[in-house]
Structures are given as C-alpha cells and as structure tokens.
Design goal:
154 residues, mainly alpha, two-stranded antiparallel ribbon, 3% strand
C-alpha cells in the first residue's frame, strides 16, 4: 500500500481494539479508553441488575427474604454504579495507574463470581471486559513511562 508521497503505509491491525499498541500515543489513549469502558460496562450492568431487582422483586442470583434485603441490595448497587462511574471518569481524565489496577481487580472479581454463580452465561463478554481492563493498565503504565522519560533536546 502506497500513499501519494510513495511512502509505505502501515497495515491496519485487525484486532487493534482488543490489544492496542501502547508504544504510540493513539494506542496508549485507546488502551486507557478501553479500561474506562470496562468501568462503564460495570456501571451499566449494575444499573440493569438494579432495574431487574426493582421490577422482579428478586435478585439475579436468588430471591430476597424481605424488604430490608431488597433495600440493602439496591443501596449497594447504587453505590457500585456511582463508584464505577467515578472511576471511569478518573481513568479517562487522570490516567491513574491505581484506578486502572482497581478496575482490573474489580473485573477479575466480577469474572470469578460470574464463573461461580452463572457458569457459561456471558463468558465472552466477561473475557472481553477483562481484556479491556488489562488494556487500561497497559495504557496507564505506558503513559507513566512516557511522563518519566527525560525530554528530548534538539
């Protein structure tokens, strides 16, 4: 492939969205965005769980004994939604390695719970979310390494 200036163009990587090249500025930003997307996914899944619990009167993993349990589950879900949303924003704006590591630990726990309580259901989505969360850590590590490099003098 050649462009107008007879310079060879890089071939597009087919799975770039799943494993961006963090050595480039664009790849680094894409990796951080993928990590933030994982937090958005977590917030959305908890919102769906909250809606299901409200309308069905039972939690996804089982029936709730009384209204106190229902209220407790709803309060925890709202707290998780707020936490995931704030962490997604922090990861996008601050590119914090700590936030990315929290996201990776959180999604690993989510995947483990999914495997225990609902084996075989949503495994592909869980693995993609885990991969995106790993990319968030990769992107923040690359940003940290880039910020620690001494500036190049001309």
């Amino acid at each position: 492939m050649q462009n107008d200036e007879n310079q060879p163009q890089k071939k597009p990587i087919p799975l770039h969205a799943f494993w961006p090249d963090v050595k480039t500025e664009k790849g680094m930003k894409d990796a951080v965005k993928a990590g933030a997307f994982t937090f958005a996914y977590i917030a959305f899944s908890y919102a769906l769980s909250t809606a299901y619990t409200l309308f069905a009167g039972r939690h996804l993993v089982g029936a709730l004994e009384d209204n106190y349990e229902l209220i407790g589950v709803q309060v925890l879900n709202v707290v998780m939604i707020i936490m995931a949303s704030v962490l997604a924003w922090l990861l996008l704006k601050q590119q914090s390695l700590v936030v990315a590591a929290i996201g990776l630990a959180w999604i690993v726990a989510e995947v483990a719970m999914k495997m225990m309580y609902a084996p075989g259901q949503g495994v592909v989505i869980a693995i993609i979310a885990l991969l995106f969360s790993i990319n968030g850590v990769r992107g923040t590590l690359a940003a940290k390494r880039k910020s620690e490099q001494p500036p190049v003098q001309a």
